[in-house]
Specification:
This protein has helices at residues 24-35, 49-56, 88-100, 138-151, 155-173, 177-188, 193-197, 201-212, 218-231, and strands at 16-20, 39-44, 61-64, 80-83, 104-107, 120-124, 127-131. Helix content is 47%, strand content 14%. The protein folds into two domains: 16-118, Rossmann fold, CATH 3.40.50.720; 154-230, no CATH class. The protein binds ligand SHN and 1,4-dihydronicotinamide adenine dinucleotide. Residues 20-26, 43-46, 66-67, 84-87, 90, 108-109 line the site of 1,4-dihydronicotinamide adenine dinucleotide. Residues 124-150 form the Siroheme synthase central domain.
Length: 233
């Protein structure tokens, strides 16, 4: 049976992550770590120009040296470890050291050796869509990401912010989970995306919250739905 990876979203903000290797793959992994607010430490005898730029901007630490025994101590302080050199023996040694230190490790070129693999990702603010083929075809993951990138536009960023605010309001005023769920389900049916695309969110948001007032009820939510339908005509 092939393995079933467990998908999860890790909070890496202000967490040290160790990247061994300074080439293309290391740069890509470092880029995604920076996007997640992590503090990458890169160990390698050579670095891409982009890694050096990030170093000058004080966004990454670089240790200019081949990986060796003296770097094992860095494992302890790392949330995640990436073995991204072009030397298989080095990658396998990094993987063994990371595992001995109880760390999850990602191994370039040897997906079965690693504790985790990285998906292709589309981000729209708080919306994260991750795609993986369990290592079978990274090219297909990248292709599907391209399709999702077109399908989910920038409007999702403010749409999710709106939903988050609405959900907070419902949580504060509706004690019962069953009723909350029904209200959120109703709100997800509102035709908001076309209005957000037309740049009308601010106005619409204001009206919706004054229509709901301090007591969200299914009746008021149905009124909102009807009002929104008129707006998109
Ligand atoms: C296991 C994994 C490593 C891990 O754990 O991270 C892995 C491994 C390998 N990739 C290879 C090749 C390519 N990788 C890409 C691109 C990406 N690869 C990524 C992830 C992963 N790649 C993980 C599994 C993901 C999954 O489950 O699907 C993405 C999603 C994220 C990221 O790396 O940041 C990023 C897309 C970013 C984006 O565009 O969104 C492209 C396409 C391109 O460059 O355009 C190609 C060439 C086309 C092809 O070969 O398909 C090879 C063969 C190397 C060789 O020739 O030897 C191996 C080695 C092997 O197969 O072992
Ligand atoms: N290029 C790609 O898109 C992909 C490559 N891979 C695999 O990932 C590996 C790395 O690929 P690239 O980043 O493209 O290679 P690269 O040649 O751009 O970079 C390799 C890096 O490893 C460093 N390195 C070598 N020995 C080291 C050591 N002892 N300690 C620390 N760093 C050391 C080098 O200095 C260099 O910075 C390869 O094995 C490749 O097969 C896997 C997936 C995709």
């Amino acid at each position: 049976m092939s393995k079933a990876y467990y998908p999860l979203l890790a909070d890496l903000t202000h967490k040290r992550c160790l990247v061994i290797g300074g080439g293309q793959v290391a740069e890509r992994k470092t880029a995604s770590l920076l996007e997640a607010g992590a503090l990458p430490v890169v160990v390698s005898p050579t670095f891409t120009p982009q890694l050096e730029r990030w170093h000058r901007e004080r966004r990454v630490d670089l240790i200019a040296s081949p990986y060796g025994e003296r770097h094992q101590a860095l494992m302890g302080g790392a949330a995640l470890v990436f073995a991204a050199t072009d030397q298989e023996a080095v990658n396998l040694r990094v993987a063994a050291d990371a595992e001995a230190a109880g760390k999850l490790v990602n191994v370039a070129g040897r997906e079965s050796e690693g504790g985790f693999i990285v998906p292709a990702t589309v981000r729209r603010g708080k919306l994260v869509i991750a795609v993986s083929t369990s290592g079978a075809s990274p090219g297909l993951s990248a292709h599907i990401r391209g399709e999702l990138d077109e399908q989910f536009g920038d409007e999702y960023e403010s749409y999710i912010e709106f939903l988050e605010t609405l959900r907070k309001q419902i949580r504060q005023t509706v004690p019962e989970t069953g009723r909350r769920r029904l209200l959120m389900k109703e709100a997800l049916g509102w035709e908001l995306l076309p209005l957000i695309r037309a740049g009308k969110l601010e106005k619409v948001r204001h009206t919706i919250f004054s229509m709901i007032g301090s007591e969200p009820t299914p009746d008021k939510f149905a009124e909102v739905a009807a009002w929104l339908e008129q707006q998109s005509d």
